[in-house]
Amino acid sequence: MSQDTNATVGVRTWDVAPPAEALQARPPATGPRSPAAWLVGIALLANLAVVVYLWLHGGGVTRAHTSAEILTSVGRVTGLLAAYSALVQVLLLARIPWF
Questions:
Q1: What is the pTM assigned to this prediction?
Q2: How far apart are CA 85 and CA 75, in angstroms?
């Protein structure tokens, strides 16, 4: 059996170059941001502040007296921020046109 993919199946998709328009960079956005973009940015920062507040209200580093408690507390805030970051990434991957 022949190993030549082009002869048996046809042209592979990676053998075809993309159109020239696709290779051009998108021009940077200019001008002021829309009010919706400002509201989304403020909402994201407010939620970040709530996440940090929940950590501080739960004890933060004030209840940590040993190195194990400090590491546990830092792990808690890291987990909270990582979960919030994952939520923001899912929203960005949804490509909701708010910016």
A1: 0.58
A2: 15
